[in-house]
Design goal:
Length: 77
């Protein structure tokens, strides 16, 4: 549910292209994690040509679910 809402917010605030970039990064990182290695080179290839503003959108989008899980685990939510 949080992921769907976050996706809607990203699309509304930053556009479909940014949403697709976030999804590409999320998928790449997940694939690397499932394969048992960090996908640093692949993530670099995805993000290297993006502007700092686009990179910041990705960082923020990926940080929000992590922060929410931490807050839930600690009893804040």
């Amino acid at each position: 549910m949080l992921g769907r809402i976050l996706g809607e917010v990203i699309r509304a605030q930053a556009g479909d292209r940014t949403f697709q970039l976030v999804e590409s990064v999320r998928q790449c990182a997940g694939d690397g994690r499932r394969a048992g290695h960090a996908a640093v080179d692949a993530l670099h290839d995805i993000l290297a040509t993006e502007s700092l503003a686009e990179q910041l959108h990705v960082i923020r989008a990926l940080a929000i679910p992590v922060l929410a899980r931490l807050m839930i685990a600690s009893g804040c939510l």
